[in-house]
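fold description:
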Amino acid sequence: MSGDEPQGEILLRTLAMPANTNANGDIFGGWVMSQMDMAGGILAKEVSRGRIVTIAADKMKFIEPVAVGDTVCCYGQVTRVGNTSIAIALEVWVNKSYAATVGERNRRKVTEAIFTYVAIDDAGKKRPIPKN
């Protein structure tokens, strides 16, 4: 999970708003993490073809703060599919709210992590993930 370009497909885009700020005036890290969880959940549900739950968020790395007005873009790719679980590498990139000057990159990676989801049935019990 590194490089100058997002890895994986775009799963979610949203706008960072004032209601999501912490005491420093930056966007609260928990809000960013929740956006990642929603984005990963979309992909995990598609892969598992049904209901999923989040069981872990590993290697969480906050690289840069997110500002009010930034466009928050969550990218993800499946890194492992087990019998009942799916690991998804997620990255959050932002399009900064200010106008980029000539030669300055407007898009920056701000957060990355690996989220793990488990497929469950209607009773909340683990279920196998279809292989095809």
Q: What stands out?
A: The mean pLDDT is 92. The longest strand covers residues 107-119.
